[in-house]
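RGS domain-containing protein: structure, please.
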Amino acid sequence: MSNPKSWGQSFEFLIRSEDGVQLFKQYLKSQFCDENLDFWLAVENFRENLDEDELTKQAGIIVKTYVSKKATRAVSIFVVNFLLEALVSKVSPWT
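Here you go.
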C-alpha cells in the first residue's frame, strides 16, 4: 500500500495509487458518482495507447459508455470538457 498520508498532500498521489483509487472509488460509489472516476481512468488508458486501431475502438467505447445521449454511465459535461482539454493538450490535468 502506498503512503495514505501522501494522498492528502496531492490528489495525484491518491489517483496514482492502486489502493487510493480503490478507496476513492468506494467513496464515489457511496455518493452515486463513481462513473466519473471510471471515465477518467478510461481516458487515461486511452492517452497511454499508441495503437491507432485500439485508439479508435477505445474512443467508441468511451463515447458509448460515458458521453453519448444513451450512455449507460453518463458523466457530467464538466468532467467531459475538463478531461478532453487535458487529452488534447497531452498534459496531466493535475499540473
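Notes: Residues 1-31 form one domain.
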